Amino acid sequence: MEEIEVVSTVCLVFTLCMFSAGIPDCWKMWRTRSTQNVPFLPLLVTCINNLIWLYYGLWRQDSTLIIVNAVGALLQSVCMFTYMVASKQKSRPLSQIFVGVVLLTTLYLYLTIVITSHTVLVDRLGLAGAGITILMYTSPMIELVTVIRTKSTRSISRPLTVATFFASSLWFYYGYLLRDPYVQVPNLPGIISSIVRLFLFWKYPGEKLA
């Protein structure tokens, strides 16, 4: 039990550090009243992911999942609000928010009306959270093609890469300790993508860090 508590605490710290990496961009948007070419969709998807894992944590009665994802959802909501204030074109992010709300509402109704078994409900929640987490970790791999082509790492952040590596590794181990594949497996792509990014930083060391 002590090992799980230690790992869960370290998971909490590293994940909150990873979430806080977006605060400077958020503050810059607020200060300049400009979105600075920051895409809105990743903020929304991360918030949805946090909400699903928060719901999963509540059903699993896992305080670590609850705290991490409650804070994550709050931070992403603040960033989305800041984006809406700073953005001159609000129709696109508003339509994306609408789609996100519809998806979350549909998932909630499905889980509360169609699913009657507690075990099945937790499994479906875990599957939904795992799917979105894997998508979040694998989608940025597309930008690595540009890094290799241009031999430049300007578009990726070393601090965020390091934080993602440790957070993913810790959550992978935490899932192993809990015997929870929905927590463990989705973090494997995060570990792999972080290792690939760290290799690119080593291969192209002359670039100024993002």
TrEMBL record:
UniProt cross-references to InterPro entries, sorted A to Z: SWEET, SWEET_rpt
Alphabetic keyword roster: Cell membrane, Golgi apparatus, Membrane, Repeat, Sugar transport, Transmembrane, Transmembrane helix, Transport
GO cellular component annotations of the record: Golgi membrane; plasma membrane
Compartmental location: Cell membrane; Golgi apparatus membrane
Membrane spanning residue stretches: 6-27, 39-59, 65-85, 97-121, 127-148, 160-177, 183-202
Gene3D superfamilies per record: 1.20.1280.290
Pfam families: MtN3_slv (PF03083)
Coiled-coil regions listed: none
GO terms assigned for molecular function: sugar transmembrane transporter activity
Membrane topology: Multi-pass membrane protein
Job of this protein: Mediates sugar transport across membranes.
Family, per entry: Belongs to the SWEET sugar transporter family.
UniProt-recorded name of the protein: Sugar transporter SWEET1
